Amino acid sequence: MIVVTTPTGNLGSQVLAALLRTDEPVRVIARDPSRLAPRVRARVEVVPGSHGDPAVVDRAFHAADTVFWVVPPDPRAKSLDAAFCDFTRPACDALTRHGVQRVVGISALGRGFPGEAGLATASLAMDDLIAGTGVGYRALTMPAFMDNLLASVPTIRSQGAFYSLIDGDRELPTVASRDIAAVVVRLLLDRTWTGQGSVPLLGPQDLSFDDIARIITEVLGRPVRYRRLPTDEFRATMSAAGMSDAMAQGMVDMLLAKNEGLDSAEPRTSRSTTPTDFRNWCEDVLAPAVLAA
Q1: In terms of residue numbers, what domain contains 45?
Q2: Is residue 24, in this structure, part of any structural domain at all?
Q3: Which of 61, 66, 124, 267 could pair with 94 in a Cys bridge, judged by C-beta atoms 3.0 to 4.6 Å apart?
Q4: Is residue 155 part of a domain?
Q5: Number of domains within the chain
Q6: Which pLDDT tens digit goes with each residue over 91-117?
Q7: Partner residues linked to 120 by β-bridges
Q8: Cα–Cα distance, 286 to 280 (Å, whole number)
């Protein structure tokens, strides 16, 4: 039995769709089961509720051998520890109690970075918590998702611009969620691996935000620019959008760390290079989203 968390999220839904093309028994934890398509509900076992709830994960992990673990975003969390480690502790107890053999988790690059990296630091602490149970664990450690740019569709559409805290000429790796999902599914279906380790996924090339703006401009056929915001303005924007002070600061700290090399320490290898380049992703995903409506 494979358990999938966040089955209606961007990544979880892609993982679930791929698993449903196999004969594997699948159980999902869904905060809102009505968001699952009827054909999906007919095919999987659904455990309703939050996977941060001890009773929910206790039920979901019973007789399961493999779990796909994603901490959902909690912009109003009172602390980074609450958002990542406190949320994960009930699952760790349930993993041990039910003898789950393998967990595939979504995490961040930056192990060994000499400084605070906000959300990335909290994600790595979560990895340590899961690994501490002794379960077989593969942490997929990644840079920013290309898909994060979908949050900027409104400003790309209305202002021809997108914003962050990173220098415009700072080249960084970026990865498409569809490539992440493919690796997740491979690991979930493989019953041969044991032990604990990280699996970096870095995309095919490093790009700066200035590069990204140029590619978006070429694909859309309209000018799009990148603007680096002052830190205080960016933090205020996050707070205005409903983030708690702790989570807004966690986002700021992570982006500033990326600007200082957080995502650049991991060398790109044939194993960490994923196939989707940004132009293809932009043509397939971003452009239709911007041009819709």
Answers
A1: 2-145+175-200
A2: yes
A3: 61
A4: no
A5: 1
A6: 999 999 999 999 999 999 999 999 899
A7: none
A8: 10
Query: Is residue 233 in a domain?
Result: no
Residue 206 counted as domain residue: no
SS3 of the chain: CEEECCCCCHHHHHHHHHHCCCCCCEEEEECCHHHCCHHHHHHCEEEECCCCCHHHHHHHCCCCCEEEECCCCCCCCCCHHHHHHHHHHHHHHHHHHHCCCEEEEEEECCCCCCCCCCHHHHHHHHHHHHHCCCCEEEEEEECEEHHHHHHHHHHHHHHCEEEECCCCCCCEEEECHHHHHHHHHHHHHCCCCCCEEEEECCCCCEECHHHHHHHHHHHHCCCCEEEECCHHHHHHHHHHCCCCHHHHHHHHHHHHHHHCCCCCCCCCCCCCCCCCCHHHHHHHHHHHHHHCC
pTM for the model stands at: 0.94
CATH of the domain at 116: 3.40.50.720
